[in-house]
Specification:
The protein is mainly alpha-helical. The chain has 4 helices and no strands. The chain has helices spanning 5-26, 35-58, 62-92, 100-110. The longest helix has 31 residues, at 62-92. The relative contact order is 0.10. It has one domain (5-110). Helix 2 runs antiparallel to helix 3. The protein is elongated, with a radius of gyration of 16 Å.
Length: 111
């Protein structure tokens, strides 16, 4: 199966849309997120990523779906390591607790 430029464009548009949604609706107002809020947002984004992998199955290419999920699991594991680095940076700059979510999102986007 060949992934066309249209599919790449739609994928990039979806990612940019999700980032814009995060910036506009999620971290616009500084607040200290609860464990429940963090769990809900994490579940939504993990669910979206898992659903995206199902698109490859729906297109009839289980090999691409397997590659996607393998890459997703690898990147998810590596992102946990990056969170510790962001935590050290945030702590060393004494970022206020209510602004940490916004700083983390900016750090992820710029990284």
């Amino acid at each position: 199966m060949e992934i066309t430029p249209l599919v790449w464009g739609l994928t990039i548009l979806l990612i940019v849309g999700l980032l814009a949604f995060d910036f506009v609706f999620h971290v616009r107002q500084a607040h200290i997120p609860s464990i429940r809020e963090a769990a809900v947002w994490s579940a939504l984004y993990i669910g979206a990523a898992l659903a995206f992998g199902l698109v490859f199955l729906a297109m009839g290419d289980p090999a691409l779906a397997t590659e996607y999920y393998a890459g997703y699991v690898t990147e998810k594991a590596l992102s946990v390591d990056n969170l510790f680095v962001f935590l050290v940076i945030i702590a060393s700059f004494n970022v206020p607790r209510e602004d940490q979510q916004k700083v983390l999102l900016f750090g992820i986007v710029f990284a």
